[in-house]
Write a structure and sequence with these properties.
CATH superfamily of the domain at 105-205: RRM (RNA recognition motif) domain
Largest sheet: 4 strands, antiparallel
CATH class of the domain at 105-205: Alpha Beta
Helix content: 40-55%
Strand content: 5-15%
Distance between the termini: 107 Å
Length: 224
């Protein structure tokens, strides 16, 4: 073989060796970037040790939990928003102050106006507890829809007694009147529930957000 061919062959082998070294260096940098070692590639020529994938099972579980948590938060916000609208716009009973106590009065709700005072008295007289009618002082009807200025509410019937034992005996019982059973409660408890609802309404209306909305709508002057 001539000297020229020998030089060309040697030059070609040198170029191949240099390119192989550069390729190994580049591959080593990629391995170090992904947390692999060079010996791992030698042991695993197919390179099955891939870098960690962001879509692993743990990440999937975290993503599902995140989506569920956001859905729960959204439902809570929607529920609170709906409750706020209900408090702000539904017609309720208004009070000038704390309700007057009625210690000997019981109350039950009944829909419509078909029930009469005689029906209530007959139901008390025919009750299995054998109520002494002398302890029944009076029976009153309250038209809640007229009082509040709305529609669709159940009306209230008040039964006032003059004996503590009769009051205790009737409280928490079911009375069959007008073809259905009604639940007797202390009228003071019912009034206090209405009063607490009225206080919540006042709190909402006096809030800074409500005042800002009223100013925008022109219901309040700008200096309030």
């Amino acid at each position: 073989m001539s000297n020229n061919l020998r030089r060309k062959k040697l030059l070609h082998e040198t170029q191949l060796s240099n390119s192989a070294v550069e390729s190994d260096k580049k591959r080593g940098k990629e391995d170090s970037k992904h947390g692999l070692k060079t010996e791992d590639r030698v042991k695993d020529p197919a390179n099955t040790n891939k870098p960690p994938d962001s879509s692993s099972s743990e990440d999937d579980v975290d993503l599902v939990q995140y989506v569920r948590r956001k859905a729960r938060e959204r439902r809570r916000r929607e529920k609170a928003k709906k409750k706020g609208y209900d408090i702000a716009f539904r017609n309720i009973r208004k009070f000038r102050g704390s309700p007057e106590p009625y210690p000997f009065t019981l109350c039950f709700s009944y829909p419509g106006v078909d029930l009469t005072h005689s029906d209530v008295i007959d139901a008390l007289r025919n009750d299995v507890r054998q109520i002494d009618m002398e302890h029944i002082e009076k029976v009153e009807f309250i038209e809640m829809n007229v009082m509040i200025g709305t529609a669709g509410l159940e009306n209230r019937w008040l039964i006032t007694v003059n004996d503590p034992d009769t009051r205790i005996g009737l409280h928490g019982t079911c009375l069959f009147v007008g073809g259905k059973y009604v639940y007797l409660r202390y009228y003071d408890d019912v009034l206090n529930e209405d009063y607490r609802e009225y206080q919540r309404r006042c709190t909402v209306l006096e809030s800074e957000e409500q005042k800002a909305a009223n100013r925008v709508l022109g219901h309040l002057p700008s200096n309030v």
